[in-house]
Amino acid sequence: MTDTPLHLLTATAALARLRAGTLTVEAYAQALLHRIAQRDDAVRAWAYLDPEYVLEQARALDGVPADKRGPLHGLPIGVKDVIYTKDMPTQHNSPIYKGSFPKVDSASIMILRHAGALIFGKTATTEFAATTVGPKTRNPHSATVDRTPGGSSSGSGAAVGDAQVPLALATQTGGSTIRPASFNGIYALKPTWGAVSREGQKVYSLLLDTLGWYAREVADLALLADVLGVRDDEPSPGPTFRGLSGARFALCQSPVWSQAGPGTRAALSRAAAILRAHGATIDELTLPPSFAAVPEWHRVLLHTDGRATFLPEHRVAKGDLHGSLAVYVDTPGFSRREQLAAQDGIAALRPKFDELAASYDAVLTPSVVDEAPEGLGWTGEAAFCSALHVPVVNIPGFQGENGMPIGVSLVAPRFHDRRLLKVAEAVGRVFEAEGGWTRRLL
């Protein structure tokens, strides 16, 4: 059997070799750098990458004694360029911060370095992870037509989707983690809000911002969940998952189902059919009428939180601030009364959704409107996203009318992240095998 090329190793497989001593960190890093050199003109996932520094770090990690190595020893991780790294610039895709070195690591990077991870480089993002105006990055699965990889975590999604790194950090305020995962045919975890520290990453909305991450299998998502301290109560809350046969899922189309395109409609239908074929029960979950206000309340929070967030850049460099962000300060669109109504309304619905979801192994719902649209100027519609603070896993395996990947989401009540990952691992195997889309790297 031909050995798997190093750049195609999952994080779990690579880590096993690194731990066993059959693969050096330097050799692994060189293989990934070679892949990037081959593909960078086509994908353009990186905002900052210094190959010599990558190899310098790799050699240093190879020199760490075996008994001093961390749980992620030598594992390369891409980092979205709104997350502070003391040895690399953090520029937020903004001329205001061009060449900026914060000289401090974010909380997540501190934890990952302590675990022995190789911080590989900074991945492209939309400006401040707050616009839908695309960066330079291209979807790696479209050979003939430029298509967006989604946003705002554009580079992280594309880099993992193109096997340039096995793992990458993302952030989400709207759909910024889940949408790129769907468009790039990869797995993503957006954990429960507040489960992982956001210290040291650019704020958009303190009420919504969440650190997430990408991988090419669920076991790899769990690696980072372990290190970043994502835990459920013990014993795990909710039903005990013993496999797809006998499992209970809720199918929730969400209040914005009318925006779903043919690819997403077909993917969700196919997903439900596959689960039923494997012995699972699927119940239709129609949310109470009170949930119909959530999309508008979410929009209110983005605008009103953005008003405070971007005031500093507006004051000191308005001419360099993207117009869609400057407008939050120039012409505030919502009153304080509307802001409070949105904050309190969504907060009241969170425990209600937890209660609805608690009797199921997971809730099945759309990840995106459809497959990645053409063009690089727009990262796609973020209609299907959550302001409910719940954990979400994107599962790949389906495709749209143009053969581009489409994922669907599994959702659980807040702080049921680990149980959700266990369910997602079983679901992912059958969706990838039977959903109709096969990862084909260019």
Can you put this structure into words, describing what you see?
- The protein has 442 residues and is an alpha/beta fold.
- It has one domain: Amidase signature (AS) domain (Amidase signature (AS) enzymes, Alpha-Beta Complex).
- The chain has 13 helices and 11 strands.
- It has helices at residues 11-20, 25-43, 51-62, 107-114, 154-161, 178-184, 218-227, 262-277, 294-309, 311-317, 323-330, 336-357, 417-434; strands at 46-48, 76-80, 118-123, 167-172, 187-190, 210-215, 248-251, 281-284, 362-366, 392-399, 405-411.
- It has an 11-stranded mixed beta sheet, with helices on both faces.
- 54% of the residues are buried.
Question: Topology of this protein?
Answer:
Blueprint: H1 11-20, H2 25-43, E1 46-48, H3 51-62, E2 76-80, H4 107-114, E3 118-123, H5 154-161, E4 167-172, H6 178-184, E5 187-190, E6 210-215, H7 218-227, E7 248-251, H8 262-277, E8 281-284, H9 294-309, H10 311-317, H11 323-330, H12 336-357, E9 362-366, E10 392-399, E11 405-411, H13 417-434
Parallel strand pairs: 2-3, 2-4, 7-8, 7-9
Antiparallel strand pairs: 1-3, 4-6, 5-6, 5-10, 9-11, 10-11
Helix pairs in contact: 2-3, 5-6, 7-13, 9-11, 9-12
